[in-house]
Write a structure and sequence with these properties.
- There is one protein chain.
- 70% of the residues lie in helices and 2% in strands.
- It has a two-stranded antiparallel sheet with strand order 1-2.
- The protein is elongated, with a radius of gyration of 17 Å.
């Protein structure tokens, strides 16, 4: 988590930690990093909090602050990622609760527009409505593909910005 160099890898690491039941540890890590006050640590802590599934620690860490400049940008990016997950879950649950095929499709499409790989954390706990048997496989495939596309786009970014080149990171590590 502390050495990954792009948002895609960070998303994977955070997701793996949550899937393995380490959500409390992950929240504590994010809070501890932010508490250092060191710009790189604060940025990493905010990113971790923003890429987690809904939880009280991320809610607290991502509330509006008086940060400025680079860290304000990272905070805004992290909050947006966190909110996207909430919207994806909301729209997916609305789709699964619907008994109208048009509404099911509308809500599924809205969910696919904001979903990322965190959907694996909550998809099984969503309600199973009457449309799931008819259209669930198609909806799940659309979500999976949308999450993969978003994950791939994140692989050349760090905190939503262009990721630094590996050579630059190597040079900075040696300083």
């Amino acid at each position: 988590l502390l050495k990954v160099l792009d948002d895609g890898a960070l998303e994977s690491a955070v997701g793996a930690a949550e899937l393995s039941g380490s959500t409390t540890w992950l929240g504590r890590l994010a809070a501890d990093l932010i508490a250092t006050g060191s710009t790189p640590d604060v940025a990493r802590g905010l990113a971790i909090a923003g890429l987690m599934d809904a939880n009280a620690v991320s809610d607290r860490l991502l509330c509006a602050s008086d940060r400025a400049g680079f860290l304000r940008g990272v905070e805004d990016w992290a909050r947006k990622q966190y909110q996207r997950n909430a919207w994806a879950k909301h729209w997916y649950e609305a789709a699964m609760s619907s008994d109208d095929p048009a509404e099911f499709w509308r809500y599924s499409t809205l969910a696919a527009g904001v979903v990322d790989t965190r959907f694996w954390l909550w998809i099984e706990s969503a309600p199973n409505g009457p449309m799931l048997a008819r259209f669930g496989e198609t909806a799940h495939e659309a979500l999976r593909k949308a999450a993969e596309r978003r994950h791939k786009r994140r692989s050349d970014k760090l905190y939503g910005l262009a990721a630094p080149g590996r050579d630059l990171v190597t040079i900075l590590d040696d300083v």
